[in-house]
Amino acid sequence: MQNFEFYNPTRVLFGKGMIARLDEQLSPEARVLVLYGGSSAERSGTLNEVRAALGKRTFREFGGIEANPTYETLMNAVAMVRAEKLDFLLAVGGGSVMDGTKFVAAAVPYEGEPWDILVSKGEAVKRALPLGTVVTLPATGSEMNCLSVISRQSTGDKLLFSNPLVYPRFSVLDPMRTMSLPMKQVINGVVDSFVHVMEQYMTYPVDGMAQDRFSEGLLSSLVEIGPRIVATPEDYDLRSNLMWVATLALNGLIGAGVPHDWTTHMIGHEITAKYHIDHARTLATVFPALLKVRRTEKRAKLLQYAARVWNLTEGTEDERIDAVIRKTEEFFESLGVPTHLSAYGIGAEGINDLVQQLEDHGMTHLGENGDVTLDVSRQILEAAA
């Protein structure tokens, strides 16, 4: 196992009715900005619960954060916080709202051009406003990590930053808040969480026994949850398990002491930036293709994944690897999520553009060993075609 430092300061309040406990998490003097996305937070009643919990505190609201949060929109929130001297941020929504709130938290006290926060991958952040979250869409794990992905409309960039100063102080996870979601968004959450786990698991063995078994348990849970939640969408226990698995998939625990491969996410970000395809659905097109192209480098973990998650133990090693890649594709497809770029009308010209975007953003040596060059990324995209 590799050396590691694990730190996660986020308090989790999980279960029905937990939004009411917001009052305990905030100073009575807190001046709060509530950030959210579209009208669903209002229609579902979540915003009303938040307003009631905030009580007599001074608070303002900022809506309209996009599914891929944009720098342009978020800078309007930054201006509001500065103008009204607000001192606490509360994200109410899914990963996009939480990511956007983290950027606002870092940008408000930043002296200089806030886009530099993203260009520096978060290293420029020296101070940040405190923030909390109320999760309405389980998918990204943003409620318990210090990562954020932001897009810029004017340039077509989509960049990630991280900094410990933007860990949420607390996150409220009430599975009832997910009941009004369209099933497409719920399924996106299943796929996003699945790939999050795989990018910390599907590399090479380092004898991280706890991490491997934990990851395999999360993957097996998602394989079970996916079809069942489609069949019985009102099942509270399924919603609860999906919400907690999504959090555990990217709160740093399973990734401690093991190598990571975020190639799928980096390529997926470029697809979303150019074609505005749902983030999770870009992952479903890229990840199986990556397994096909990188099967030699990932051989040992592919065989382990085949045996422990899918119970594939018969046949030659190559036959088992072929079978488990098919199983992964079939799992996504069974949920109605395409696994090929052609489903979105992306052909050879589009692949050329995506490779160019990767080069423009410095994504020239990805993967757990830094050997996913632009040529390899092209091979992955071509395999995904």
Cross-sheet strand order for the largest sheet? 1-8-5-4-2-3
Content-based structural category = alpha/beta
For the termini, the CA-CA separation is 36 Å
Largest sheet: 6 strands, parallel
Name the helix and strand elements from N-terminus to C-terminus, one letter apiece. Answer: EHEHHEHEHHEEEEHHHHHHHHH
- Indicate the low-confidence ranges by residue numbers: none
> How many strand elements?
8
Query: Which term fits the overall shape?
Result: globular
Number of helices: 15
Strand content: 5-15%
Percent range of helical residues: 40-55%
Radius of gyration: 20 Å
- On the 0 to 100 scale, the average pLDDT is 96
Describe what you observe in this structure.
With 385 residues, this protein is of the alpha/beta class. It is built from 15 helices and 8 strands. It has helices at 22-25, 40-43, 46-54, 71-84, 95-107, 115-119, 183-201, 209-231, 236-249, 263-275, 279-293, 299-310, 317-334, 348-360, 374-384; strands at residues 11-14, 31-36, 58-62, 88-93, 131-135, 147-152, 157-162, 170-173. The strands form 2 sheets. The protein has a 6-stranded parallel beta sheet, sandwiched between helices. It has a two-stranded antiparallel ribbon with strand order 6-7. Helix 7 runs parallel beside helix 11, helix 8 (209-231) packs antiparallel against helix 9 (236-249) and helix 11 packs antiparallel against helix 13. The longest helix is centred in the middle third of the chain and has 23 residues, at 209-231. The chain is globular and about 65 Å long.
